[in-house]
């Protein structure tokens, strides 16, 4: 069905529903709309997944801090955590304690070298944890910045097709022009629907990841100081 017939059908029927506008849009415009709708669904899947993961991560941090400062010995805590997969502060703690134990088993004598190895082990683990926290956030940033332009591209193509149909029909009444313009503008609307939540979620989730990262860094610094004092005491004997 060409653009002239489509616009005439919509004008005659007075149809303005979104579904009919989508069905009567051109192939390229439909492709743009479908792509944006898929991106929007995936965006919401990431938002929901990340929100749940961050909430669980905070609970995990709170639980670990409670156990760490409860007076339980570091050895007991290490044995309980090393037997299962850990993340967050638990992963930092296990990495540091594992390096501590390996170094003393091999007869470490240099407190500076041991401290450096422990800090390096925690830095590597911290980088891995931050990569996991920030994974897929780049997709939200990409959708937030690109979706409006992709929708605008669909709108431009739709308007060009609509004007060609109008020129062919030699009719310029509003009833003939409006359906084609509405079809084209629907692509921009869908682009904004995909972009706005992505931008808001990206800013919020990035801030949340930064706060969680700061908690991990603060624990790494504090635990490094604790181990440094114990290293001095142990090597001084």
From TrEMBL:
UniProt topology in membrane: Multi-pass membrane protein
UniProt keyword annotation of Transcription present: no
Predominant place of localization: membrane
Superkingdom of source: Bacteria
One matching Pfam family: MotA_ExbB
InterPro entries: ExbB/TolQ_transport (IPR050790), MotA_ExbB_proton_chnl (IPR002898), Tol-Pal_TolQ (IPR014163)
Gene Ontology CC terms, in alphabetical order: plasma membrane
Residue ranges crossing the lipid bilayer per the database entry: 27-48, 137-160, 180-202
Keyword Membrane applies: yes
Alphabetical keyword list: Cell cycle, Cell division, Cell inner membrane, Cell membrane, Membrane, Transmembrane, Transmembrane helix
GO biological process terms on file: bacteriocin transport; cell division; protein import
Localization per record: Cell inner membrane; Cell membrane
Domain MotA/TolQ/ExbB proton channel residues, every copy: 114-216
Entry similarity comment: Belongs to the ExbB/TolQ family.
Subunit structure: The Tol-Pal system is composed of five core proteins: the inner membrane proteins TolA, TolQ and TolR, the periplasmic protein TolB and the outer membrane protein Pal. They form a network linking the inner and outer membranes and the peptidoglycan layer.
Summary of the function given for this chain in its UniProt record: Part of the Tol-Pal system, which plays a role in outer membrane invagination during cell division and is important for maintaining outer membrane integrity.
Listed name of the protein: Tol-Pal system protein TolQ
Species of origin: Aurantimonas endophytica
């Amino acid at each position: 069905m060409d653009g002239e017939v489509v616009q005439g059908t919509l004008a005659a029927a007075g149809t303005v529903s979104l579904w009919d506008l989508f069905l009567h849009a051109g192939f390229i415009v439909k492709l743009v709309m479908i792509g944006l709708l898929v991106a929007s669904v995936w965006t919401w899947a990431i938002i929901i997944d990340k929100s749940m993961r961050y909430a669980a991560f905070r609970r995990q941090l709170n639980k670990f801090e409670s156990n760490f400062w409860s007076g339980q010995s570091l050895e007991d805590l290490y044995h309980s955590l090393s037997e299962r997969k850990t993340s967050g502060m638990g992963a930092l703690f296990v990495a540091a304690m594992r390096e501590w134990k390996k170094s003393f088993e091999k007869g470490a004598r240099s407190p500076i070298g041991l401290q450096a190895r422990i800090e390096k082990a925690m830095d590597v683990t911290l980088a891995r944890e931050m990569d996991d926290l920030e994974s897929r956030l780049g997709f939200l940033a990409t959708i937030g910045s690109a979706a409006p332009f992709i929708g605008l591209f669909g709108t431009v193509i739709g308007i060009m097709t609509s004007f060609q149909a109008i020129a062919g029909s030699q009719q310029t009444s509003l009833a003939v022009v409006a359906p084609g313009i509405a079809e084209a503008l629907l692509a921009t609307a869908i682009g904004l629907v995909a972009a706005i939540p992505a931008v808001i979620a990206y800013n919020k989730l990035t801030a949340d990841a930064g706060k969680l990262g700061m908690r991990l860094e603060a624990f790494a610094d504090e635990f490094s100081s604790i181990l440094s004092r114990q290293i001095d005491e142990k090597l001084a004997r």
